[in-house]
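okkk here we go again. third time trying to get the adenosine-5'-diphosphate bound version out, last two times i messed up the smiles copy paste (missing a bracket lol). double checked this time i swear
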Amino acid sequence: MKLRRILLYLKLDAKSFMRGKTGPFFLIVFPIILILLFGSIFGTSGVASKTTLVVQNLDPGNDTWAIVEGLNQTGLFSVVVIAPNVNISTYIAQNSIDSALQIPENFSANFANGVISLTYYSNPSNPIASALGQTLANDIAQSYNSNLAGGKSVSLVNRPVLAKFTKTIDYYIPGFIGFTILSGVFALIYQVPNYREKKIFRQLSFVGLTKSEWLAASVIFFTLSTFLSDLILVGIGYAVFGANLSLTIRSILLSALVIFLGMISFLSIGLLAGLLTKEENSASLIGNVIFYPMLFLSGVFFPISDMPAFLQVVSEFLPLTYFIKALDNLILFNDIQVVILPIIIMAVIAVLLFFSASYIATKKERL
Amino acid sequence: MPDTVIKITDLRKSYGKFEAVKGISFEIYRGEIFSILGHNGAGKTTTLEIIEGQRNRSSGQVEVLGMDPETRRTEIFRHVGILPQDFNFLELINCGEAIDFYIKSLDARDTVDGILERVDLLDKKDSLIKNLSGGEKHKLGLGLALVNDPEILFLDEPTTGLDPVARRSVWKIIEKLKGSGKSIVLTTHYLEEAQKLADRVCIMDRGIITITATPDEIIHKYGKGSVLRLSFDEDDMNGFLRLGLLHRRSGDFIEMDISSMDEFFSIIERFKEARISPQNLTLTRDTLEDIFIGLMGGDTNEA
Ligand SMILES: Nc1ncnc2c1ncn2[C@@H]1O[C@H](COP(=O)(O)OP(=O)(O)O)[C@@H](O)[C@H]1O
Ligand SMILES: [Mg+2]
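finally!!
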């Protein structure tokens, strides 16, 4: 691989991309549409508001208050504690509350007997609230079990899955970033059959440009353009919907690394997919067949834990899964520790995919 | 001894069961224009791609500048220029940018304007490739092939699909390259093109090379030569007959076989001396076309 040739082609490719009609659309207009659309559907317009969670503790004690404190600490809810003498059903009805958690009188006693009982009230017409209750109950039970036994205070685990059910725009942003990456891949799935049919790869090979150099140039181009898209996306998230991400220099740099690694993997897959056909028409079909399932199975918009077991296994093998996991933890929770493994896995997948895709593409072009 | 730049010996290529090239041999010398002439499907592109190192052969020997293109493809690419059949490049790039990319990638010494001038495309420097006419596109492809100042230039049907004006303008560029020391391998199915441009021609038909020679040699050997056709008024006709020249009648016309231009001029001289003036004089010369059609048994399968 020769860097100079990569950069020369990069310049040519970027010009050609920006002069096309679809390129700039996917780069700039599409992310704006995406966030405006989702923002108005799922985000609360104007001000970001966390889901209000009403908590009534009927069994006051150190342990049970630790649960309430733990809920608060997650930062996922606005916890409103109501007094034990308030009728919770009436309160919910009067204040149009969608979710409320009641710690029953006999909670501690039950727990001593190995039973955890919590009451969760949710508005049945709000599926988000009911799903939230399920997850919440599981989380509390889990953390209570593991932590209390060690004599420590109760705390809740930050779970991205849980986060998906809150109503702020923040939690959709990693998914949107996944989306912007895939739009680069779609561009490639169209480009590859086109270049093969018109024998442009061959023409490029006359100046010594190899497939891996071509792929590297595409990776650089789409990484940079995706950064740009994502800046716009996050900017609008902040300006219009009051997004509140936990961005630090470190989380931004690591997110950039994640996007770069993701780009290598997805564009390699895009190249391989593009090799399956020489016609642009079938290319879009192949793109849809590969990428939409990936999008939905990677936890972008639906939590993986809610999927049937075999789909959960499938999702473990999708690069997008690690990508979203890593971004979730980075820009939502600023949790560096958790992302180390997904980043390593992504790096390995990226390297493998990059070289096998270049190799197969070279083989396929050889007459 | 001419300097050989390409040597092909018993080259064969099969696509599955179909043998597209059936054991051909020829040599190409430094500085000459060598044309492979044949109908569509004759195996011209296949042969060229094998020589260029783009395609693997089934059997036989190929040597390009002393190298085997199958194993030393990258090195050969540095010394040759290729204008493929159906040349294409990034559509939304302009001519200047495309040539600039080639020059920089190949570390070539030429300038963008220099190349554009050589292929008569300076006024299209800022035109996007998608807006070029067929002829302009071929010229750009030719320009790109010239960037690395190649020793051998491969032109695969450089004028196919062009209108006569565009064709002539591509010919002019190729003619200018003649004598630059470059060897040019040119495939075509236009006989006129081979006759006009090539130093030597081989005729390829269904994977076989039938003849390799200069256009003149081919015409001389396989052609019927030239025919002088004329008529006289009655007085002059008697004068003509008194000259006792070998001729045949064809309706009102007299026809004479001419083997050289000298013979033609000496006949005209004798007419002058005898004070007779021929009418409706035409001199038809056999072209490669006639021979080609003769050799192919009139087969004009334009697939
Ligand atoms: N990739 C291929 N696979 C199978 N057959 C081919 C392939 N390329 C060419 N052919 C066949 O080989 C023959 C020679 O083709 P080609 O070399 O392109 O001829 P030409 O350039 O003289 O028109 C044709 O019959 C063509 O159909
Ligand atoms: Mg051909």
